[in-house]
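Supplementary Methods, section 5.1.

A reviewer requested that the exact input to the structure prediction be made available. We therefore reproduce it here, unchanged from the version used in the analyses.
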Amino acid sequence: MPARSIRLAAALTVLLGGIAFAGDGKHPRGVVELFTSQGCNSCPRADSLFKDMAQRDDVVALSYHVTYWDYLGWRDTLASKENTDRQYGYMRALGAGSVYTPQVVVNGQIHVNGANKAAIDESLQEMPRNELPVGITVSKAGDSVVIEAEASPTAASDKAHLVLVYYEPPREIDIARGENNGRKMTYWNAVTEMQTAGMWTGKKQRYELPASEISRKGGCAVLLQSVAKDGGPGPILGAAIIRKPET
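The structure derived from this sequence is encoded token-by-token as follows.
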């Protein structure tokens, strides 16, 4: 997923109506999802590594704070049950046996230690053609944001959800208790909300969403993600970014 790396954050960034659209129908190298916790003493190294991942322009990087370390004395201020449920969904889909932090899931298909940069890079390299298979285009039409997903050469067998993943801009947190007591950490692209916006069945498809809904968020990733047999998250087929322009 770098021979064909695209400038995801800059290849086509059009400032319209207070929203920045990144993506030009090309195929990013991959999606990196970090599962982390402010209460996990193994996570700061992965969180620091993730900062570099979030600033790359050839991947979509998302950080999901989970709740199951809160009992150690510090409640993660960015965690949610929805994030924790997503990690458990990957555990079942990937046959991982258990959840752990820091964990990185690449393209919904491979999980590795989130503090192991070499393993993350190697997982990205395993993507055929070094890219996600389905291109996503984002544009603006009047008061709407228009998302278009390309057709797939295997359209008869492809089904997926179009998922909007909202996340915060970089945020600094002072951790006052627990295993990371006294640390000051900056967290990037922390996920706050996920929303299924529609279905995709392998054919070229257009989705229209209110621009006002997206513009009030810190940032938004568009994921075209297949569904596992149990309804959980499956392989990611395409991705793009919608974000507010920097001021």
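Residues 75 and 100 are 17 Å apart (CA to CA). These observations are discussed further in the main text.
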